[in-house]
Amino acid sequence: MSLRVAVLISGAGTNLQALLDTVHRKHGIEIAAVASSTPTAGGLARAERAGIETAVFPIVDQRDRAARDHALGDWLEQRSIELVVLAGFMELLDPGLVRRFAGRMINIHPALLPAFPGVRAIEQALDYGVKVTGVTVHFVDEGIDTGPIILQECFELPYSRDIGEIEQRVHAVEHRLLPRAVRLIAQGSVRIDERNPRLVHIDERGDGGERGDV
Ligand code: GRF
Fold this sequence. Notes:
- The protein is an alpha/beta fold.
- The chain contains 6 helices and 9 strands.
- The protein has one domain (3-202): Formyl transferase, N-terminal domain (Rossmann fold, 3-Layer(aba) Sandwich), CATH 3.40.50.
- The longest helix has 24 residues, at 163-186.
């Protein structure tokens, strides 16, 4: 049995594409569903090209965020989703949905958390003048980019400070780090410490529980 993964997007979906290219239907992983907060997300076409079921959950169609996220949670559960990946999902999630998928929802953030959480993280890092930045993959909790950290990778910022160039560097790291995190979770190598729930253990060799290829 493969790990059934849903990817939530709002934009271009280059991280979704990286997952499709590197882990979908490999390593015991099935990207089974893609949901977007907006019908204009470019990532929807990427999912459709890969033959993956998609849905759009615009907040304006619902009474409020809680109602939208309740519907989204039902949609995910009806598809037996075991892991939810936020890959450029640009809206806050209702705490009810986060609790429903506690320990089963991860996010990619374009900075070294806890520095520069929230929106415009790359710009925040540049404005601050940091010399090193990077990418974080973390579990989602009820705060903004505050959940336990699974993986991080850093790099030095060039003096040119050209935002386009730095975005490209960030994306290149993201496209490697997010698939790696999903692979590690699928093979049972990621575990939150029982005594310190901030601490995530990674056992690269897994526990022998890697799921077979589909
Ligand atoms: C990524 O930089 C991600 O870290 C951030 O939003 C961006 C999404 O890019 N949360 P894409 O839609 O995957 O191309």
